[in-house]
Amino acid sequence: MNYPNNLKRDYKKNISHRNRGMDLECSINKSNEYYLSINRAVIYKKPTPIGLVDVKYCDNKKQINKAYFKCPSTLDYNGIYKGKYIEFEAKETISKTSFPLSNIHPHQLKHLKLIIEHGGIGFLILKMNNIIYLIKGEDLINFIDNNKRKSLPLKLLEEKAYVIKERINPSLDYLSIVDKIYFKE
Amino acid sequence: MNYPNNLKRDYKKNISHRNRGMDLECSINKSNEYYLSINRAVIYKKPTPIGLVDVKYCDNKKQINKAYFKCPSTLDYNGIYKGKYIEFEAKETISKTSFPLSNIHPHQLKHLKLIIEHGGIGFLILKMNNIIYLIKGEDLINFIDNNKRKSLPLKLLEEKAYVIKERINPSLDYLSIVDKIYFKE
Question: How high is the ipTM of this complex?
């Protein structure tokens, strides 16, 4: 059946994209809860920064009546693992061939560079084609600094990134990849 | 002049309390900006966690029409300094003799314990009587675990805490105290 302006198709696409977004974030949050429960790491998602416009008192509690989302200058998740500072961003894309770099703000890239420079662990978790990759901050920055491309090609992920396996608990065992990369001895 | 229900007095007290709160937070934020500018540390205030109730699109941008403040389960500030994970809370009190411990949520205390256990640096910056103290997380937890008092007495601060000097740049040089406590050699 044909809808005017392909409404049906767009609607479906939006839903699917949004769900996938929630899936990855939800998976990481649950994994962090699991890691915390077994005392392996203390990692939290940072709250989204907002700008307050109108706050009122309602039943003795502050209620926000108007606010907007601010552009984040740091990454989504941070915490401590094996005594080291850890910070990362999680993204997914519906593209099957590349990840548009416009999804990472320049402030965030600058921040990632600083984290690495100061001795922390920084990386990107990226979901593409239903596969979840972990790409080291160093490799991401190296690609961006030495390429004019505005997207991360699948080929680079296949060459440089590590695949994170999905399990039951934790649902996304990204710390086993962190062990492999940053704590190998 | 007497106002009904001491309205004037209450009003004055609120203003004064609020300004003092902004002063300390503002001072720490500015100091963190300074530390970042000289590449000494990467420390940010975490956004306040909020619960969204109503979000709408307005001019193609998401606008929050109703939300509320959530109880934080971690501390105000975190980041990386000399390769170490650092996290702290900043509080001030108008009391001249003690700091009410009800100002720190049980979740936050549990989190502070975990940070220390995992090898991070955790502390409280406290402003009382116009003096700014830094008290080690270990000393704070030790006091709470071994006392039935519901407030931190000034005497404990004078014995255990370190006074942070106010300067021009950074306005609050708390990292020099961190150096003294955690990086002495």
Answer: 0.84
